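It is worth pausing here to work through a concrete case rather than discussing structure prediction in the abstract. The textbook approach is simple: state the sequence, then state the predicted structure, then interpret. We follow exactly that order.
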Amino acid sequence: MVRDGCDLVILDCGLALNGPDAALIASQADATLLVSQRDRLRGPSVVHATELLEKANAAPVGLVLAS
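Step two, the predicted structure:
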């Protein structure tokens, strides 16, 4: 397992809305960060991505804003 030989492993899963892969991978992680562009923060896509992650028991512990 990767975690056995590392202190920290970061996985970039791409867009949560493009399919179940991101939620599946996130459900195996110790923590999940949701990354969003600043101008899309109030849009339904961020809410939907959060809901998908919550359903996978991988609710985000934080949010990263990109410009």
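Step three, interpretation. The first helix runs from residue 21 to 27. Residues 14 and 22 are 7 Å apart (CA to CA).
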